[in-house]
Amino acid sequence: xxxxxxxxxxxxxxxxxxxxxxxxxxxxxxxxxxxxxxxxxxxxxxxxxxxxxxxxxxxxxxxxxxxxxxxxxxxxxxxxxxxxxxxxxxxxxxxxxxxxxxxxxxxxxxxxxx
Length: 114
Description:
The chain has 114 residues and is mostly helical. It is built from two helices and two strands. The protein has a two-stranded antiparallel sheet with strand order 1-2.
């Protein structure tokens, strides 16, 4: 319920992401393939205070991705429902790493490759 503290935390996260983004941009200038993914572990109820099963609207989160490995630009709608578990296989695909065949491993967010 500490909205002011929440906003302060967002400002600090934004500052840090600016630093990470600048470092990735410098690496990209050197020809390094880069990707930055920013998301949340859960959404919020309309009241802003709660999340979880009793608040189905809190199941939705956002994802922002950027970098030289990400081909899509602007708003990209997912062709199907996605999960946080889809981020790891996306990174594996982007960087040519072997897939994870275990149950529940997720599927790559191929809409970002276009």
